[in-house]
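#structure-requests
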Amino acid sequence: MPKEGTSLLFAACNGITEMVEEILKKFPMAIHDTSENKNMILWVVEHRQPHVYELLLKSNLRRDSMFQTKDTYGNSALHLAAMLREHKHWIIPGAALQMQWEIKWYEFVKNNVPQYLLYETNNKDMTPADIFTDTHKDLVKDGGEWLNKTSESCSVVAALIATVAFAASTTIPGGVRENNGTPILEKHAAFDIFAISSLVALCVSVTALFLFLAILTSRYQEKDFRSSLPKKLLFGLTSLFLSIAAMLVSFCAGHFFVLKDKLKHKALPVYVVTCLPITFYAISQFPLYFDLIRAFRKVP
């Protein structure tokens, strides 16, 4: 935050888009306000305020002259976008997702500034790309470790489900007829549900397992955090949740033949109680799943 400045600069740094818009409508010259040798563009980029930045891009400003401004250390707007600050501006958990949004912010600013800024150096003779690599190396390391731990725990669950699903898919409830080898219970609806759900559980659990293994064997380079690794984790979790649901349906359908006569009307509560532990595990992963979906927004 600027130590001294106008209301416009403070509003811009805090992302108050409505206030910035109203001030610029009534006092257009306020766009030239500066503090600590930084104009409004530099402050907005440094404080990661995408909505205010978009507002400035859409306004009728002399953007080229504003982007030419540099701070005391020779940093342009792209240099500031490439720097990782101690204060985390993105409200999203996980080092990997933080890294993804840092890349998206840097690319967003890069695509909306004059192209010559990509190659300009600051007082330390560093380009924006050099600064990005240097300041984000610890975040890349932390993101790789976070993905490793998450993928390891999820791959164990996926392997267990694949083992159970394979055993279930090769087992026929009620046995087969000796004369032609067809299932004895093939005309029951529960048998069809069991056969389909056990096959689905096997397929999607194996898919999840391979996706998590792909993450574990990744090189964890900067560019991988932009899309490749988050997508693999998102699809892996989706497959894992589907395999858990399919396995539970398969278990209930196969076990229904045992309880349908004695506990016909009480079977459903019994299944619900039996499935609670593994359902709680799936629910505990939902926050991560929704954060992954939210992380794929175009602009942070």
